[in-house]
Specification:
By secondary structure, the chain is mainly beta. The protein has two helices and ten strands; from the N terminus they run ααββββββββββ. It has a ten-stranded antiparallel barrel with strand order 1-2-3-4-5-6-7-8-9-10.
């Protein structure tokens, strides 16, 4: 029994630390997201996002997304974010009403905002994967507490 406990401690000590998520480092440069969006009463379809990020002359972090959603015209949106404390960012998104809030804890970021289109509350969680170049992406769109859409996918750092 003591031997089994020692083996458990050794395995725990040898386990690598979970990856930490550095939002600005990950999104600086180019990234690509392959997602599937499931909207209530509709079939699932592809949602592809290609992004380019970096700092503007004011020091804010700017991310420009090119969005290709199956069945819709290509569109762009712009995020402008700045630090608001340890593991906390705020800013705006061109297709949001009001502020965007980002909380980073360890390997996961939770992003919340309200969309202009339909006043849907978006809650998105992205989680760093062990390869350091991929994020798991999960989002829900809610109104009146009811989930109207879900997004599942991955985001890859390209450079």
């Amino acid at each position: 029994m003591i031997f089994a406990a020692l083996l458990g401690l050794a395995a725990a000590a040898a386990a690598p630390d979970p990856p930490k998520l550095d939002m600005t480092a990950f999104f600086a440069g180019k990234s690509h997201a392959d997602n599937v969006i499931k909207i209530a009463f509709h079939g699932p379809h592809k949602l592809i996002v290609d992004s380019v990020g970096g700092r503007n002359k004011e020091g804010e972090f700017v991310l420009v997304d090119t969005i290709r959603e199956e069945g819709k015209p290509v569109r762009t949106r712009t995020w402008v974010m700045h630090p608001a404390g340890d593991g906390h960012f705020t800013g705006f998104l061109s297709d949001a009403v009001g502020p965007v809030d980002v909380i980073v804890r360890g390997d996961t970021a939770t992003i919340t905002y309200v969309m202009k289109d339909g006043n849907l509350k978006i809650i998105e969680q992205i989680q760093a994967q062990s390869d350091g170049k991929t994020l798991a992406n999960h989002a829900v769109a809610k109104k009146f507490g009811i989930t109207f859409a879900r997004v599942e996918g991955t985001i890859r750092k390209l450079d």
